[in-house]
Amino acid sequence: LSPGDITNIWALDNLVSLHVCGTRLKNGIVDLRGVTCRGVLQELAVTKSELDTINGIMGLEQFNNLRRLNLSHNRLCSLDDEVMLKLISLEELRLGNNNLEKFPLVITEMTQLRDLSLVYNLISTIPDQILRMRLLEHLHLDNNYLT
Fold this sequence. Notes:
Radius of gyration: 15 Å
Strand order of the largest sheet: 1-3-5-6-7-8
């Protein structure tokens, strides 16, 4: 799938939920820069798409009304702090089944987060900064290397 193959959906101004799952992305990139529904899109799922980096989702930082983000079943090793901190409305973040070796500290600065899934990663410790996450209600850490 290349950005040119799906650009016709970018003009859907009222799109609330977008799932691009199980899709082989050309060069590991999905380009969201042309999406016109930035203000209303609340849910984005890019799963099973062999993403190595969150920067493979070009334009993600523009979705400041996004409430749910699912990037599970990829190959992510880290997150881009600058991009993640721009997702100021994010309430649910799914990062399961990736290659995260460390708990991404930027997550502890995401003040609206209520539901966090980091299942099936390589995480061995949870930082004390997690105590900053006052609104967090659901934390999923199954199948990591926690002691």
